[in-house]
Amino acid sequence: MAEAEAVPEPFASFARQREAASLGMWIFLASEVLFFGGLFTGYAA
Amino acid sequence: MTDATAEPTPAYLRAGRSVGSWLLTTDHKRVAILYFASITVFFLIGGAAATLMRLELATPAADVVTAEGYNKLFTLHGVIMVWFFLVPAIPATLGNFILPLQIGARDVAFPKLNLLSWYLNLTGGLLAGAALTFGGVDTGWTFYTPYSSLYSNSYVTLAAAGVFVAGFGTIATGLNFIVTIHTLRAPGMHWMRLPLFVWSIYATAIMMVLATPALAIALLMVVAERTFDMGLFDPERGGDPILFQHGFWFYSHPAVYIMILPGMGVVTEVITCFARRRVFGYTAMVLALMAISIFGFFVWGHHMFVSGQSAFASLLFSLLSFVIAVPSAIKVFNWSATLYGGHVTFEAPMLYALGFVGLYTLGGLSGLFVASVPIDVHVHDTYFVVAHFHYIMVGGMVSAFFAGMHFWWPKITGRLYPEGISKIAALLMFMGFNLTFFPQFILGYAGMPRRYQVYPDAFAFWNALSSAGALVLAAAYLLPMGYLGWSLVWGARAPADPWRATGLEWRTSSPPPPDNFAKQPTVEREAYAYHERDEAPDHRDSGAHRPQSREVPDGRG
């Protein structure tokens, strides 16, 4: 129970929190790939 | 009427009264209120610019502002309304507030990032606002090159920087919503049990994350061209002025769906509730939302039929634009079928939602006109296009926003708004909107170009009518600000579920406590279970999750 209390809001478990963090990072990277990929392609075009 | 003070924990509104408790909050509900405050200010600024433009256009001659001032007015109106009102309006206010409640979560997945999104949006708004008010920008909201990169002597860089910064706020919001929906759904809340508002925010969030970088690129290139003279859009140095249009519309066409999809979600919630009916074709509605969010990425070229792209490209983009009309039509047919056989009542949210269906349909059908290459060549850059996209973005999106605001107002504030005057405001908005924008279809088809301050006398009648409509519309927008503001102080206390609706958000008190739910809710049924599948929808007391069943002041239930 003590461990559960230490899980940062709003997650119910550490596992779910880690899952969310890595999903969030992948989405961020996807948007960055589009941003820089588009930028370099635009410059090269 | 039961007093909301009976709730076990204090509502989120009373969790802290200091300015710091609001500006440093990570509670999704308070962040939603921050967004609501900032977009209301931006809406008033953009609306004031529109009012001045319609005042100028009330007569054929130039009698209110200079030609240069007019250029700056329509730029201000467009930039503020698109990026600082329409794009964040439903996702960042109603989405932020309602989405975690609807899936039974305590907050969004990244609460601090959520607050950062608001600060990015506000910073962007202040930068753009500074550019637009200190010296103004005269490029139009589209920032088309080479005018914006080579010729304009206005504050283009500052305004583009504002939109650029706000864009990253939008990406962060989209990312947050996607992760929230994936990881924080309550036990039993399967994907096919999600309310369609959640699905609409999910589809929107995907577009936010994947389309906004293209806008950032396009604007960054304009700034680079202006600042470092890189020749990106200069044909003499190997550049291409059309490159900007590709980047800009790769974002800005999906942006139309970023604006309208959340509205579709709101309208589905409202129509099912006030028809006491299960939504017709839930799976088709989900697939239509996702189809729009995917196809929305492949139609940008229909903005460029007269920009010199190849005939084959125009043909392809025209075809794809027709294809995207199919899922849009599925949604309209399904809303109509949901109403069929339902016990329809006409409270204010329902009036706004029905207004949405009508105006969105007109906007969508006129979209087919401009998706056809030959007609688009005739009406390109005329008031026909202005009328078309205002039917979608104002008639559709703003109606949906008001529908959602009224529907969830008791949940957000814990107060009931006066029903009578709100119905008048809803009807006034529908009439004012049509009076303002329908004449613009006629003007555009007759050949009046957009972005002109003066026009021939032949266009005077329809312009006068449009300007008169704008006054009615302005009154219809100001009216809710008055009575909703009034209800904050004097409105009756709202019960947890005043509309007897089915979503999880109605299972907690109004307004909700900081942690949303006293205990983790679980979901046993599909969304919109207003009646059993094998029963007619007139069984008002059957089915739905109803934590409380109190009388509503207008006698419903």
Instruction: Indicate the multimeric state.
Output: heterodimer
Unreliable segments of 5+ consecutive residues of chain B: 1-7, 539-557
How would the global form of chain A be characterised?
rod-shaped
Total strands of chain A: 0
User: Which spans of chain A have pLDDT < 50 for at least 5 consecutive residues?
Assistant: none
Largest binding interface between chains: A-B, 21 and 32 residues
What letter string, H or E per element, gives the SSE order of chain B?
HHHHHHHHHHHHHHH
Helix content bin of chain B: 55-70%
Number of helices of chain B: 15
Q: Please state the CA-atom Rg of chain A, rounded to the nearest Å.
A: 17 Å
Sheet of most strands of chain A:
none
**Helix/strand class of chain A:** mainly alpha
Average the pLDDT over all residues of chain B and give the rounded result: 92
Keywords:
heterodimer, A: 45 residues, mainly alpha, 2 helices, 80% helix, B: 557 residues, 15 helices, 64% helix, globular, disordered N terminus
Structure explained in plain terms:
The complex is a heterodimer of chains A (45) and B (557). Chain A has 45 residues and is mainly alpha-helical. Chain A contains 2 helices and no strands. Chain A has helices spanning 2-6, 14-44. Chain A is rod-shaped. Chain A starts with a helix and ends with a helix. Helix content of chain B is 64%, strand content 0%. Chain B is mainly α. Chain B has helices at 19-23, 28-56, 67-102, 111-134, 147-151, 156-183, 196-228, 241-275, 282-295, 311-339, 348-371, 373-379, 383-413, 419-445, 460-490. Chains A and B meet through helix 2 of A and helix 6 and helix 7 of B.
